[in-house]
Amino acid sequence: MMGRLLRQLSGLLLLNLISKPVWILAENAAQDHLGHAAWGRFAALMALAYIASPLIDLGTNQLLTRQVAARSHLYGRFMGQVLGLKGLLVLVYLLVLGLLALLMFDLQAGDAVLLAAAALIHIGLSYVLLWRSALQAHQLFGWDGLASVLDKLVFLGVLGLLFIRGFGIEAYAVALTGVTLLTAAGLGALVWRRFGRVRIRFKGSGLRVVAAGGWPFALLFVLSSLTERVGQVLLDPLAGEAASGLYAGAFRWYGAFSMYLWTVLPVLFARFAQPQPPERAQGLLEAGLAVVALPVLWVAAFIGWEAERLFFLFGGSSPIEIAQMAATLRVLALALAVNGLFNIFSTWLTATGREGGVNRLLVLAAGLSLVLNALLIPVWGPLAPAVVLVVALGFLSAGYGVLVVRAGVLRMPWGVLGRVVLAAGVSGLVLGGSRLVGGAWWGWVLASGLVLAGLVLVLRLVDWQALRGRSA
What share of the chain is helix, strand, coil (3-state, %, to 5)? Predict the structure, then answer.
């Protein structure tokens, strides 16, 4: 019988398999309806709001997961302090975001609605992530999976109504804001009902302790989001709204497939954060590596062969625009593959109190991204941020490996890495069958999936016993 962790992972993945593809296709249709320029401005403001969003919580979400996962009796007091701090930081966030937007963009009258929507959406998402942290800390990953897709499921229905009535970018932004805030309120009610009401604390000493403990996580998020999203922000002022929209169309697929990582890795983060002997952590790392990396590498290979197929809803775009988005997505697929292979090492490092080293790497990666994007965007347009992201993630991945080795607790799983790359490479070649030898592309996709499943068994890539853990 599968362990509790495996059942929880299966539930999370099923929810994402149902909701994420429909959500992405709906966003593609909305962007095609609104146009690349209109979408590009909103995408740039959303990216800026995302980069600044750690100011809302100062990293307390991950801190709560790590602290409560190890000592559940701390939940009531710790959550009260987090809520008090977050309420104060929302005001700081709004002020900083407004100033950044004024400095970076030539804002027009209509942009005020988009900027306000971007700010409120990320405030709502911050509270959603807080409630999810409470669920993760108590190992309730099934509820966490539902929380991760709830806003998207609700908004799909709202978006359907918008298409029936007709809409512009402002109406889209306002509707998304409303759904996000309502989702945050609903999840908050669920968490309070499940774990009891919490008294919000504004005591200065408690807030300082929480802020000091969460600050390394906030810095980690700022730097990682800056590395990943700064290209989207800079495209608008350096290359224009249309270029920003084209990149957003490609990056949407990168973000969608990355959600697999952000669904599975928090589960592993909570497991790594629990006290356990090194041999158990080593087994979890090696088993988790295969579970995390293989689907991502397989998807990256599919994008490499068939990227154009993912833009079939862009009927209003020219062949040149679709080719630009496809070329950008192919480069982003390389970034996706690198992240899939190596991000689990960052997860272990941050879950076990080694976020300082990760942050030092991210400072260098963020600086590299800023400089390279500023230099390359005027020359390469929407392709530049994708290339820069590959370079930055490659640098980070090498650094994560060095930090794991230096920690001296776990061994680098070179054997598992090699077998994962082998399995992904063979199944990736099968994915290109329609291009190489002919035939229906979907038939080769099915064949590739079967080959990958067979290689997982033959190469013994997943240690199910390690994933079962204590709760088997």
Answer: 85, 0, 15
